[in-house]
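STRUCTURE REQUEST FORM
Protein name: GNAT family N-acetyltransferase
Source organism: Bifidobacterium felsineum
Requested output: structure tokens
Priority: standard
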Amino acid sequence: MPYTFRAAAASDLTAITDIYNASVIAGGATADLTPRTFEQRQAWVDSHKPPYGVFVVESSEKPGQAIGFGALSVFYDRAGYDGVTDLAYYIDPAWQGKGVGTFMLQHLLDEARARHMRKACGIIFADNAGSIALMHRFGFTQFGLMPAAATDSTGTMRDMSYWYLDL
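Status: completed
Returned output:
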């Protein structure tokens, strides 16, 4: 297997920040309009208390260096939603199109099941073809579309698509 999946460590924060900010700058993957600081990413990682978590993928070509990261996050902060997780994943641009996203999503779903989650949700820009393809590949069902919901850093107004998978 050319990739490994593990829990994020403090030493991964620079890579997590850089990978996320590359997505912010490129547009099309997040509604953050400006890059995040290291401290903001640290606070985001720290907010993931069990059963939630942040994870990284490494390549055997670059051991010890994160080439992507993903998270199991709180879907909605009311107790009745416990067991539903919001998925997020970002891949270093140099590693996109090489199976890292598929590897990441498989392992995020495995983690969600191991942590006794009952549903996984993805909230994705409707024109993000790569993430939409992953939703289909893993059997997610689209349950909503919100037109003109968010802008990205390029100023493009994007529709949001909402997906779920029973775990």
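Reviewer notes: The domain at 3-121 is CATH 3.40.630.30 (Aminopeptidase). The two ends are 25 Å apart (CA to CA).
Form closed.
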